[in-house]
Amino acid sequence: MNAEFNWWLLILGLAAGAGIAWLVLTDLARRDEDLAERERATRVGPPARPLAADGRPWLMGERFTIADCCLVPTIDRMADLGLGRMWDGRPNVTAWYARVQARPCFAKTYYPMTRLSEIFAAQKVS
Asked: Which residues of the chain form beta strands (DSSP E)?
């Protein structure tokens, strides 16, 4: 009777594992669809909208502020991951990012080998 019980537990475990795997895989597929839909719908998120509203050089106006500092890592990581296309057709965002890159603090912060693309390119699998 003990061996039979173990078989039932094994069968139940396999069925539960298959069910969980199915749930995870369908959820991942749904997330990919949702992400693609959100990317098409938004193109550029709310932080970039103030740049498109008028000709201000920085998010909050004429001065580089903490708001710009908070957005720089996100925009830089997106550009590093090849998601810069999200602000194609948004010249104010492109100009803002170019101004940020021209600042001396940018070069000190994003020195060589700090970006994922550089790190993974250096770790080529042979």
From this structure: none
Of 50, 47, 43, nearest to 86 (Cα)? 43
pLDDT digits 0-9 by tens, 26-75: 555 566 666 667 666 655 555 555 565 567 888 888 899 998 988 998 88
Residues 6+ apart with CB under 8 A from 80: 115, 116, 117
Do the Cβ atoms of 72 and 100 come closer than 8 Å? Answer: yes
Domain residue ranges in the chain? 1-42, 44-126
Distance separating alpha carbons of residues 17 and 98, to the nearest angstrom: 50
By the 8 A CB rule, do 110 and 101 touch? no
Express as a percent the part of the chain with pLDDT over 90: 11
* d(C-alpha 77, C-alpha 94), whole Å: 14
The residues, ordered by sequence, that sit 6+ positions from 94 with a Cβ below 8 Å of its Cβ are 87
Quick one: fold of 44-126? Glutathione S-transferase Yfyf (Class Pi); Chain A, domain 2 (1.20.1050)
